[in-house]
Amino acid sequence: MASAMMRRSTSVMRSLIGGARPEAVSAGSRAAYASVAVGSDIVSAVPDVSLQKARSWDEGLSSKFSTTPVSEIFKGKKVVIFGLPGAFTGVCSAQHVPSYKNNIDKFKAKGIDSVICVSINDPYVMNGWAERLQAKDVIEFYGDFDGSFHKSLDLTKDLSPALLGVRSDRWSACVEDGKIKVLNVETVPSEFKVSGGDHMLGQI
User: Fold this and answer.
1) Average pLDDT, stretch 53-73?
2) Contact of 185 with 91, CB cutoff 8 Å
3) Looking at the annotation, which residues are catalytic?
């Protein structure tokens, strides 16, 4: 019985964070589970939501645990943003962040004001991870500590079988003055086919 339960658990986990998948949602397409699509105003989709810029605990204290309104991040700017399941996890560390870090000059050449990474993590974990990846100077890292940003966009998945709980989908977008111009969402978080930096560069 224990063996059967283990096989079932492993099967469920693979279905959530790996395994076979249909075509990923890509440029100009809308995920069936996302509340936004190309042309949507991301600021209007997440009213009164703020993110937390990556920082040390001492920096959090000195800032009185300040947060950054989403409107401040996007309004009047051309931004590339990508979301991922979690700091210090496999694909996120080995592929997703590096795909943007290694292409930062190309994004700047295309007029991108900022490249942003966001995850359902607290800002202190995001800070430690950004420093570990030596990416903090080129990418802006934000925590979505309570998941309110991703939940408002319907871009979450329950990854409890992997002991992660509710996490962000793996996704990317190009946003100009709050308007979504490009939106890519992987069907399962373990996939890395449409949300990376190289793919985004070909879309903007």
Assistant:
1) 91
2) no
3) 92
